[in-house]
Amino acid sequence: MDKLFVIKVGGNIIDDEEKLKSFLQSVASVQSHKILVHGGGKIATTIGNKLGIESKYINGRRITDDDTIDLVTMVYGGLINKKIVAQLQSLNCNAIGLTGADANLMPAKKRIVKDIDYGWAGDIENSKLNAQSLTLLLNNEFVPVFAPLTHDEQGHILNTNADTIASSLAVALSGFYDVRLIYCFEKKGVLENVEDDNSVITNINKEKYKQLLDEQKLFAGILPKIDNAFAAINAGVHEVLIGDANDLIQNTTNKTIGTLITQ
Amino acid sequence: MDKLFVIKVGGNIIDDEEKLKSFLQSVASVQSHKILVHGGGKIATTIGNKLGIESKYINGRRITDDDTIDLVTMVYGGLINKKIVAQLQSLNCNAIGLTGADANLMPAKKRIVKDIDYGWAGDIENSKLNAQSLTLLLNNEFVPVFAPLTHDEQGHILNTNADTIASSLAVALSGFYDVRLIYCFEKKGVLENVEDDNSVITNINKEKYKQLLDEQKLFAGILPKIDNAFAAINAGVHEVLIGDANDLIQNTTNKTIGTLITQ
Fold this sequence. Notes:
- By secondary structure, chain A is an alpha/beta fold.
- Chain A has one domain: Acetylglutamate kinase-like (Carbamate kinase, 3-Layer(aba) Sandwich), CATH 3.40.1160.10.
- Chain A contains nine helices and 14 strands.
- In chain A, the strands form four sheets. Chain A has an eight-stranded mixed sheet with strand order 5-8-2-1-11-13-14-12, with helices on both faces.
- In chain A, α3 (43-50) crosses α4 (66-90) and α6 packs parallel to α8 (223-234).
- Chains A and B meet through α4 and β5 of A and α4 and β5 of B.
């Protein structure tokens, strides 16, 4: 099977023009099939504030009301996505910007209202993910660049977590490619001691994860990433790596820097 | 050769939710290869005003400064484009939202500064238009939906007139398909008498065009559309039609309502 890298990059890199530029140079230089999934960044909040759209959160999760879905559709699907595409194209990387609505690549379900109405938040329907169209694009040397947006097949765009999109894509394509899912962020990997950037845990399996949770060593922000990583591994993805955006090139070769998640 | 309809729709339809919905139902029902190109609409100006971005025009042409290119990238490439894609998908039309940057489909040149600096305005380089990737998408039953944006291959998105994009696409694909280019707007066609909606001129060839210009019968807004239509015809496009968005279904059959442009 051909190698495929599914690369997720988060807001901290996107918000910094120089870091983003350097990161995209790394992405462009990867000599295999690849997919880039990008998060939102602070720019959506900045533009939202100017437009008088208040950011609403309940228990740390964004509430996507009517104004907010328009805002993120503009900013994630338009501004950030197309700027990344144009930059990658200038680096001879054949990027094509996409959301889950385009070519019906990622149908999702609007989150059901129980105690909290999350609004236009979408949970991906993994069984409906359109692997056929994705393989067609990949095998014709396109490089899909995904904004964290899906759709409900009823005509509405939905807001979906970028880590989850990356994980779902990796899973759906693991039957067709030898997939390595790479979560890129601003740290060298999952840290044993949050204060010490050099305390990277090189390998986390389920047992180790349980131990780290028991010891409460992990910082809160990393937990969903590790959960998504295990979801991917359990569903057949070959390798999941959590590492520094600056180490992307090394992490697409045999040398690995960061935290490898394994069964 | 297979039939291909290149359909351009303008701001007046896009700005009206009900008209847009009805128009997209027509687009979805067209049983041939098809490409939709959409314009901007007033929403960019409305959002720009809220963001404190002033719309600047010289001689009726928009000046695309740094803030404005970000604005139109968001609104055209994100908000409008993805909403149209999601709606078409709900109608079982396999839409894929694109700009000229995506898959390097439409490289353009930033307009050279002579007397006026138009900013990030792009003039399409017709010889560089990527017909190969477009035919790949079309032949795999994707329906490209273009926002009026291109790129300069140096990492920048450019603002490009939607009528011109439609014309350039029609020309580039006329070697591969039997192309009908359809400009949809809110009138029944080109009118002999602007006050009389029933005075549609059913056919305009070059001679007739010269005569109409001499008689100053045409309203100003229609001239660039007719110029683009002739540019397409001269460059090998089979048919160009200017007609009502409501008549799209009939205009993709043998029956034609509106103004047909011919040599």
